[in-house]
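To the wet lab folks,

You asked to see what we're planning to order before we commit. Fair enough. Below is the target structure as tokens, and below that is the sequence we designed to fit it. If anything looks off to you, flag it before the synthesis order goes out.
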């Protein structure tokens, strides 16, 4: 009887231990799944950020190439027959803005076009500056390239 009683208590204790082990295992499994979901979400967010960074880098590269080509095209005007007339128009625009006493730099090396100064004011009608203004004026139209 003592032995049978001890066997029953041992069996009951094994049952409680088994149930506790199964509960702990279930809890560990649930926590592991949650941790895995969090890790997956973190990995997705990192991948999304990296993809966005690459897209922005590619856009910047295309924009800079477009800007270089636009500036080069503007500078190529220096070798055309129409360039002297363009210089005259740019000088007139500078004088109209700054007055007849303006100091003008006509066809500055490496930039072409006209720069003007009068007192504390200045204008920049160099070919690269004009090309940059044309690009800036595209505004939203330029954004359409990315859609």
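Sequence we intend to order:
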């Amino acid at each position: 009887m003592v032995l049978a009683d001890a066997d029953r208590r041992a069996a009951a204790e094994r049952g409680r231990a088994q149930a506790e082990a199964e509960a702990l295992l279930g809890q560990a499994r649930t926590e592991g799944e949650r941790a895995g979901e969090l890790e997956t979400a973190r990995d997705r967010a990192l991948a999304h950020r990296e993809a966005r960074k690459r897209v922005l880098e590619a856009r910047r590269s295309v924009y800079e190439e477009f800007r270089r080509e636009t500036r080069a095209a503007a500078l190529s005007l220096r070798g055309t027959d129409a360039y002297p007339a363009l210089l005259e128009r740019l000088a007139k625009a500078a004088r109209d803005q700054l007055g007849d006493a303006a100091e003008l730099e006509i066809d500055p090396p490496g930039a072409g076009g006209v720069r003007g100064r009068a007192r504390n004011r200045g204008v920049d009608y160099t070919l690269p500056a004009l090309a940059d203004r044309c690009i800036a004026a595209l505004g939203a139209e330029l954004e359409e390239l990315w859609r």
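Structural context that might help your review: The chain has a mean pLDDT of 89. The domain at 2-146 is CATH 3.30.2320 (hypothetical protein PF0899 fold).

Thanks,
Computational group
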